[in-house]
Amino acid sequence: MNVKHCILIILLVSYYKVNAQKIYTTEEGHIMMMTLVDDKPVKAESHKLALYLDYDSKVVNGVLDIKTLSTDIPEINSILQEEEEPLMLRFTGTIPSEDFLTKRHDPITFNWLVTVTYKDKTYKSVFKTTLTHFDQGTTTSCLISARGQVLVSDTGLDKLIQDLDKTLEVQFAQLVLKLE
Q1: Considering Cα of 156, then 160, then 162, then 165, what sign does the dihedral take?
Q2: Judging by DSSP bridges, how do beta strands 139-151 and 167-177 pair with one another?
Q3: pLDDT confidence of 19, banded at 50, 70, 90?
Q4: How confident is the model at residue 44 (pLDDT cuts 50, 70, 90)?
Q5: CA-CA distances (angstroms) from residue 53 to 26, 46, 92, 162?
Q6: Mind giving me the DSSP string for the chain?
Q7: What structural domains does the chain harbor?
């Protein structure tokens, strides 16, 4: 291998390493949804929420396969598992804080506008969000906690699961590491 190839390889590896550090990723985030079905409370949870945070733009993208939700009602679990179509729920929103990942801060609370997409339907929702800073030994982290309501009719889930209430309470919390 000649010098030009070695330099090219070094540049490509360096570029990948620098860019890879700009996105925080988890595919094991926790999300919980609550609503009423036949006037009875139902909680659905998943530990398969994928989140991607771009450290530069502060854009968070989330992806959840609705089929990974689990409830205490076997009939609902069965409906979700037997659905043939993909049940991918996606959301995106920009966190309006420039410095939450670079320095210590008091809890930052804000109304977070997110765009939600499910089965080719897109709508906006506002989530009450708090960014809480804390030290974790030698690393510093920030916890993003969000909760909000979405209209079931906006999601289309009322066509999949009968007798759902009109609103769906959604909440999630995800720890992200400080940008080094």
Answers
A1: negative
A2: antiparallel
A3: very low
A4: very high
A5: 9, 19, 10, 35
A6: --HHHHHHHHHHHHHHHHHHTTEEEEEEEEEEEEEEETTEEEEEEEEEEEEEEETTT-EEEEEEEGGG-B-S-HHHHHHHHH--S--EEEEEEE---SSTTTS----EEEEEEEEEEETTEEEEEEEEEEEEEEEETTEEEEEEEEEEEEEHHHHTHHHHSTTB-SEEEEEEEEEEEPP-
A7: 23-177 (2.40.128.110)
